[in-house]
Amino acid sequence: MTDKARALRETLSSLGSVVVAYSGGVDSAYLACVAHDTLGDRAVAITADSPSYPERHRQMARQIAEQFGLRHEIIRTSELDRAEYRANPENRCYYCKHELYTHLARIATDRGAVVVDGNNADDRGDYRPGRQAAREFGVRSPLDEVDLTKDEIRELSRHAGLPTWDEPASACLSSRIPYHHEVTDEKLRTIERAEEALRSLGFRVCRVRHHDDLARIEIGRDELPRALEAEIGGAIVRELKAIGYRYVTVDLQGYRMGSLNEGLRLQPAQATLPPDAKRERPDGLLITLKRERA
Question: What pTM was computed for the model?
Answer without folding.
Answer: 0.86
